[in-house]
Amino acid sequence: MLKQKIVLNYALNITLQFLQIFGSILVARIAGATVLGTVAFGTAYVSTFIFIADLGLGTAHIKLVSATKDEKLLADYIKTFLVIKLVTLGLFLLLFSSVYGVQKYIFGYQYESRTHEIVIWVILASMVIQHLIDFHRVTFAGKIEVAKKEVVSFLRGFFSQVIRIAVVLMGFGAVAIAIGKLAASILVVPISFYLFRTYQIGTFRRDLVKKYLTISVPVIIIGFSMKLFSQLDKVLLQFMADSATVGYYTAGYKFAGFIQLLGVAIGTTLMPDFSRLFAEGKTKEVAEKIFKYERLAYVFLMPLALIFAIQSKFVVITLLGNEFAPSIPIMQISTLSLFFFIVTSPYGNVIMGYGNFKLPAKLIIVSLVVFILAVFLFVSPKMLNLLGTGMALSNLVSYFVLGLLYFLFSRKYCKELTAKNIAVYLPIGLLFFFAGLAVYYQYFDKFVLNFVFPFIFLAVYFSALYFLRMIDKRDFELLAEVSNIKKLFSYARNELRN
After folding, report:
1. Is 469 exposed, middle or buried (0-12, 13-18, 19+ CB in 10 A)?
2. All structural domains of the chain with their residue ranges
3. Does the chain have fewer CB atoms within 10 Å around its N or its C terminus?
4. For residue 102, with 0-12 CB atoms within 10 Å meaning exposed, 13-18 middle and 19 or more buried, which class applies?
5. DSSP for 35-82?
6. H helix count then E strand count, the chain
7. Which of 342, 111, 135, 65 is nearest to 239 (CA)?
8. Orientation angle between helical segments 206-240 and 387-410, nearest 10 degrees
9. Alpha-helical segments (H) within 241-301
10. What is the pLDDT of residues 4-34, one digit of tens each?
11. Measured between alpha carbons, how far is 49 from 40 in angstroms, rounded to an integer?
12. What pLDDT is attached to residue 180?
């Protein structure tokens, strides 16, 4: 059933990602890169502070809920988490308002336009509503009820994109898009409460607060650092360049985002599952699950990621137009870096599933320092001044360092883990990428031939793996099990009904 949960998580998110890409294409073509960049900046600006609203408590709640079978204790966990969550949300609003006020009224910083300021405050309201019902989402995650957790996120994203497309077609700009996000957040509130109806809310307990804080303190660092990873790139680009540059970067990164979604699906599903397995002393089963996942990723997902990266020019120019040519190298680099991120993310889940949250915090800080140094080297006008491409390279370097550190330290808690898949498949992937890139630009860089290239690439790729005995019948059996639509719908239907 775990496979179906991961697949459902990824399937809903990838559907939403394609809808977001379609919306971004319309925004880029109709409204232009400036509108796209303005909304991206506003979202990134608010998101830089949003970690205060969580402070690692969500991860702590998932860890505690996944380890309990006592319904009364579960109800007390929910009430305690809800109270703490309201406190942290208040701290977030206080900090955000203070920083905004100091920045504008004391230091006299002027935003690029009044529109930027309005977008920031509307998106702030949207995020506050999302976090008000966050105790639903993390409780579903702790119980590994993926269908319940993801349907709310999917519907919020779906409503947001539909409204976004509608307002752009009607000629409105960044402010209207931000209001659409707010409306979508409001619409899913009753749905979230309905799905949560079977849970009881118990009593606030001070003794449980200590349990939350014991886990959440190191997770604060993890949450803050990961939020910086995901949002600081756009904020820095805005301050170092302009909204158009942020728009080019956002467009290229968005196209590569379908890869990152799998990492999110894995993390939210495997961490509570690994927590259960470690509690039962089943470290060998943890290693077996990671091995199967890696095989699936390297054999079937990697060639799709390589094709996507190689044909970035065709995707960007066809969908966005020549204006977005700067997004091409960004999409190529981001696709590769995010693929490496998703194949190494389970190692981080091993460490946190074991219960050690301090170590990942330290490792993420190291990779964040590497990211900042890389930004200074690749993006800064005083150095290489590569703008969006430089930011994509910075992400690639930091993700590589983080993935390597995750793997090295995860073996302390699960000695059965090996680097066999990484050592064998990753070099093959790099070889196919550079060879495929050379062949593509030499012979296939024409509109019609772009539709032929993926079939030839996949045929050569799977033939090579078969010849090298790196693929067998078990891989296809695993793929068939994972992609079993009947099992997927059966799981989702049963969970939502109950």
Report:
1. exposed
2. 2-497
3. C
4. exposed
5. HHHHHHHHHHHHHTTGGGGTTTHHHHHHHHHHT---HHHHHHHHHHHH
6. 21, 0
7. 111
8. 150
9. 243-279, 283-296
10. 555 666 666 667 767 777 776 777 677 666 7
11. 15
12. 82
Rounded Cα distance between 192 and 185, Å, is 11
pLDDT digits over 186-202, tens only?
888 888 888 888 888 88
**Structure letter (DSSP) for residue 51:** G
What lies within 8 Å, CB to CB, of 360 at 6+ separation is 218, 222, 348, 351, 352, 406
- Written as six digits, the tokens of 207 are 């003794």
Q: Angle at Cα 385 formed by Cα 379 and Cα 388, nearest 5°?
A: 55
What does the angle CA 269 – CA 348 – CA 401 come to, to the nearest 5 degrees? 135
Nearest Cα to 396, choosing from 283, 206, 260, 301?
A: 260
How far is the C-alpha of 302 from the C-alpha of 424, rounded, in Å?
Answer: 13
DSSP element (H, E) containing 71? helix 71-101
The Cα 100–Cα 121 span in angstroms is: 10
**Per 3-state DSSP, what percentage of the chain is helix, strand, and coil (rounded to 5)?**
85, 0, 15
pTM of the model: 0.65
Tokens of 147: 């269908």
Q: Please report, for residues 49, 124, 246, 318, 482, the alpha-carbon distance to residue 239 in angstroms, rounded to integers and kept in the order given.
A: 17, 20, 10, 30, 44
Under DSSP, the state recorded for 132 is H
